[in-house]
Amino acid sequence: MIKLLLVDDEELVRTGLRAILDAEPDITVVGEAPDGAEVPGLVRRLTPDVVLMDVRMSAVDGIAATRHLVTKLPKPPRVLVLTTFGNDGHVYDALQAGATGFLLKRARPAEIVQAVRIVASGESLLFPAAVRDLVATRGRNGGDELRGAGLTEREGEVLRWIARGLSNAEIARELMVGVETVKTHVGNVLAKLGARDRTQAVVAAYESGFIDPRRPVDV
């Protein structure tokens, strides 16, 4: 059973999300909050697997709440941020802070349910084109500041495939290797970059200039 915490300053949004998600046999909404300030205490008490959180709130927003969870808790829940607009710069700030992915509020109910299941399973919810566009608006350059991380040529290749949104199985087909081999490469990439998950690895790749957001991702 996936335990979920809903955080949004609009009661109508929380009510709608609860109706959608509580109807699923493998998801239970264990709590709600109207502001990010309440999130740390609720997470400690309710131990949710996933926090579905609005990125923009009047007092403590989703960015600050996400950063607190990731930096202060030894085992933080996965955070999936909600946004009205896909080009909202706050979304990228939330990803930098440690969110596993983002979801548009106008997403269909089935997409919302699937997104929760994806992040609860430990995977990342990446929208490669959207993330690339968000970084491009920040004026990142094409320099490579990840050389000190010690990525091998194959690990760099795997990181670029991750940035394109491919799963381990899809990367394995591209490289013509086994899925377990890809999992090992992905694990090495995350460890060397100090990344919690694939989303954070991609953020690091764009932030450092290892991948130029102004160009399609080449592998």
Automatic annotation (TrEMBL):
Residue(s) carrying 4-aspartylphosphate: 54
InterPro entries linked: CheY-like_superfamily (IPR011006), NreC/VraR/RcsB-like_REC (IPR058245), Sig_transdc_resp-reg_C-effctor (IPR016032), Sig_transdc_resp-reg_receiver (IPR001789), Tscrpt_reg_LuxR_C (IPR000792), WalR-like (IPR039420)
Gene3D superfamilies per record: 3.40.50.2300
Residue intervals of the HTH luxR-type domain: 144-209
Keywords tagged on the record: DNA-binding, Phosphoprotein, Transcription, Transcription regulation
Highest taxon of source: Bacteria
Domain Response regulatory span(s) in chain numbering: 3-120
Transmembrane segments: none
Protein name: Response regulator transcription factor
Taxonomic placement: Bacteria, Bacillati, Actinomycetota, Actinomycetes, Pseudonocardiales
